[in-house]
Write a structure and sequence with these properties.
By secondary structure, this protein is of the alpha/beta class. It has 14 helices and 16 strands. It has an 8-stranded mixed beta sheet with strand order 5-6-4-1-7-8-9-10, sandwiched between helices. The chain has a 6-stranded parallel beta sheet with strand order 13-12-11-14-15-16, with helices on both faces. α6 links the parallel β9 and β10. α3 crosses α4 and α4 crosses α5.
């Protein structure tokens, strides 16, 4: 099978081609490792260096092309992409990373007369670009017409099936983690390297520390707990929200934006890790990757009971708290500090996930004529 994979170049502060980072890189790579001929086509929203390179992925082939905006900005992308794809002659075009790429992917597949697939690693309607006039109707139409839609969570897959009326194969396909980075480590060694207290009880998290995503209950819960327990500290890493700053307390430790490997050290340094979400469309349909990352580090967790997290941690009652409920989160944190409980999760690797995607693409290609 010849697979064209269309995505944005910058992804979660990483360059997909240069950093070979996470889902947007691993999905094409794993398909190539399964013997397919894959073209990864990255479009950039910002000025960057163009790239055209082959990556080793035997027995298949994996070529990455990174296009730059040029003097016409993104207006030239559709025709640059069409020219490259005509030369490549794919059997299927996969669009991912945000609504504009999915709309463009559907257009390209139609022009080429080939099957179209979509990969939703998040609820893309929550992204800023989806607020542009006309984007959401075109995005939903592309999803309805796709031969295959893979979704990061089962709630998102249900939305695509029932809310959008997708006519193709719809499959829940979570992301996974790099186990060479995320694994149990010595807690005291991690604390020493990060410069956080060695003997305190540490609760904390990492990511987008925004009010919209649900960080505020953690700040308020810490304030409640800290009044009763002087040995509890809060450790944070990621991007701060100026509208919702952390508590002003000497026991709050903000580490800035950490590289991936240091984020693993942070998780291993904690007594309790927090997965915060709100009961919003983003919260209901997303899948916070740090849930897997913290779980494989064997960190006791406090997790907002929203969307996929409710199902994922349903056997760990001591883990789930009610979203936006400070008292509920406080109770879970205190319980985990007193008697830690570590959740055990079954996590597929990238190769196993690629096998599921491959089957869906092959099945979806058979239905393309009827969609």
């Amino acid at each position: 099978m010849r697979v064209a994979y269309l995505c944005k170049r910058q992804y979660m502060s990483h360059d997909v081609i240069v950093d070979r980072y996470a889902r947007l890189y691993e999905q094409p790579r794993q398909l190539a490792l399964r013997g397919h001929d894959v073209l990864g086509l990255c479009l950039s929203y910002r000025s960057t260096q163009a790239r055209d390179e082959w990556h080793t992925a035997n027995p298949g082939r994996l070529r990455w092309v990174g296009l730059t905006p040029g003097y016409l900005g993104g207006l030239s992308y559709p025709y640059q992409a069409l020219r490259l794809l005509r030369a490549f002659a794919p059997n299927i075009v996969v669009g991912t990373s945000d609504a504009p790429h999915i709309i463009l992917g559907g257009w390209l597949a139609k022009r080429l007369g080939v099957s179209f697939a979509v990969d939703l690693y998040d609820h893309f309607e929550s992204f800023g670009l989806s607020r542009l006039p006309g984007v959401i109707p075109l995005y939903r139409r592309a999803l309805r017409r796709a031969a295959v839609v893979t979704c990061v969570s089962e709630p998102l897959a249900d939305l695509v099936r029932t809310g959008y009326g997708a006519r193709g194969v719809v499959l829940a396909l979570p992301s996974t983690i790099d186990r060479t980075i995320f694994y149990p480590r010595d807690r005291w060694a991690c604390r020493t390297r990060l410069g956080v207290p060695l003997d305190a009880k540490l609760i904390g998290t990492a990511g987008g520390l925004s009010k919209e995503k649900g960080i505020e209950p953690l700040y308020r819960a810490f304030e409640w707990i800290a009044q009763e327990n002087q040995n509890v500290h809060l450790v944070l890493a990621g991007s701060l929200d100026p509208r919702c700053p952390p508590p002003q307390d000497s026991r709050v430790h903000y580490l800035g934006k950490l590289p991936h490997a240091q984020t693993a050290e942070l998780f291993n340094a904690l007594d309790v890790g927090v997965i915060y979400l709100r009961d919003t469309p983003y919260g209901r349909y997303s899948f916070p990757q740090k849930a897997y990352e913290m779980a494989v580090c064997e960190v006791p967790l406090a997790v907002a009971s929203v969307g996929a997290m409710t199902t994922l941690f349903q056997s760990s009652i001591q883990t789930l708290y009610e979203p936006d409920d400070v008292a509920s989160l406080t109770n879970i944190l205190n319980a985990q500090l007193a008697q830690p409980e570590v959740a055990t999760l079954q996590i597929l690797d990238w190769g196993e996930l690629a096998s599921l995607a491959e089957k869906a693409y092959l099945a979806g290609a058979e239905k393309v004529k009827s969609l």
